Amino acid sequence: MFDVWKNVLAEIELKIPRSFFVTFFSNVGLIGVENGIVKIEVPNAFIQKNLPAKYSAVIEVALKNNNVEFKDIDYVIKTSSKTKLRPREVSLEEIKKERAEPIRQSVKFNANFNTGLNEKYTLDNFVIGSNNDLAVSAAKGVIDKPGSKFNPLFIYGGPGLGKTHLVQAIGNELLKRNPKIKVLYTPINHFYSEFINAIRNNNMDGFAKKFRKLDVLIIDDFQFIVGKERSQEEFFNIFNDLYQTNKQIIVTSDRLPSQIKTVDERLASRLTWAGAIDIQMPNFEDKCAILKSKAEFMGVDIEDAAIEYLAENIKTNIRDLEGEFNRVLAVSDLKNMTPLELINEGYINTTNNIRVKAVSPKQVVEKIAKYYQLSVKEMCGKSRVAHIKTARQVAMYILSEELNMSTPKIALEVGVKDHTTVMHGIKKIKSDIKLNFGLREQIAGIREKIYG
């Protein structure tokens, strides 16, 4: 039966994007079949809720293809058990004893301990959209039950998409609920610098004890640990110590641990024990919502048309979007004009101030073909093979959304004679992207290739 489950997972992995497979199927196992009910073991409540909602059909087909007869599927949360981790010099009992001991001054934990958190990052001013709703849901799970529901919480995505804001908001909310909790936010390069200083000062014992006394450890920009073998080993040990005592670990990165070639496999595996959740590029509606929320938070007036102009023209990320928003407000005060008047009078030209690559339709088509591992001739030909047709329709959608091209012009670029075919292709992608998370991820990846 368990060999059958391996075959089921292998089949599912071929059907969905790798990142989603890691998020939803890591540490998911088959318990067995009883009275026609397939019992599947999942690591936490988040996966229990979202796995069947998103992939029940895929799982059912894979089970049937492997000759598993059943009436229904029951998703059961894995009962807590001690995971066998790599032993180190410090035992679990010693860790617990250290947490109960008075904190030494050299460790620098006291009532005024510096958490590293910026209090401006809260959930109240974090705008939830279709690009980050999954990550926010997991964040709320951590806040409700730190150390249990989503541990470790691994969030990844491109720069400027709000990862730092979200994880610091988790820390701030946890402190608001329990001011005595020990939370530390640190970028990985700061962790590395502190590690080097501890070696120089012969204080590795104090360094390790500091981290073992934490309730919540938040590591940002994990991708920068590349090539630092000794610090990886120490982080691995700290991770194990905290995990064994049910302390919350939160990590952000611009990519999955498995995509960072020099990261140790043991560490990469542990970081995704509870899955990995991505934050994607925001769509037009998301960007409008972000700017409206920011305007409301700042107590400033800005016309909807001005917001829509910025959302339409800033193609990079949220950080650049908010930066341009702030610049518009500053120039508005200086000129004593409304933001929309500035735009209409030509004072604001986003392409002069945001690092957006000027791309031609030909370049876009080439990048999309390359993304799908096709030649331009293949993608823009007459083939009706499913994956080629999808790539062609994605090209239609991107050319329309990103370059505002008319359907007749798009038809010429993708080798389609009838512009109504383009209209149908764009409409299909717009419809599919709402529910197809794999397609969403593909389009986000294409946008990064175009503007990155």
Characterization of the model:
The chain is α/β, with parallel strands linked by helices and 452 residues long. Helix content is 54%, strand content 9%. The chain is built from 20 helices and eight strands. α9 links the parallel β6 and β7. The longest helix is centred in the first third of the chain and has 21 residues. The radius of gyration is 25 Å and the shape is globular.
Order of helices and strands: HHEEHEHHEHEHHEHEHEHHHHHHHHHH
Label the overall shape: globular
The portion of residues forming beta strands comes to 5-15%
Strand order, main sheet: write it out: 5-6-7-4-8
Find the structural class using helix and strand composition.
alpha/beta
Count the helices. How many?
20
Unreliable segments (pLDDT under 50, ≥5 consecutive)? Answer: 80-87, 102-111, 351-356
DSSP strand count: 8
Main pleated-sheet profile: 5 strands, parallel
Average residue-wise pLDDT: 83
Short synopsis of the structure:
The chain has helices spanning 2-15, 18-25, 45-65, 92-100, 133-144, 163-177, 188-200, 204-212, 229-244, 265-271, 284-298, 304-313, 318-335, 339-344, 361-371, 376-379, 386-403, 407-414, 419-432, 437-451; strands spanning 29-34, 37-42, 72-77, 153-156, 183-187, 216-220, 248-253, 276-278. The chain has 452 residues and is of the alpha/beta class. The protein has a five-stranded parallel sheet with strand order 5-6-7-4-8, sandwiched between helices. Strands 1-2-3 form a three-stranded mixed sheet, with helices on one face.
Q: Could you outline the blueprint of secondary structure elements for this entry?
A:
Layout: H1 2-15, H2 18-25, E1 29-34, E2 37-42, H3 45-65, E3 72-77, H4 92-100, H5 133-144, E4 153-156, H6 163-177, E5 183-187, H7 188-200, H8 204-212, E6 216-220, H9 229-244, E7 248-253, H10 265-271, E8 276-278, H11 284-298, H12 304-313, H13 318-335, H14 339-344, H15 361-371, H16 376-379, H17 386-403, H18 407-414, H19 419-432, H20 437-451
Parallel strand pairs: 2-3, 4-7, 4-8, 5-6, 6-7
Antiparallel strand pairs: 1-2
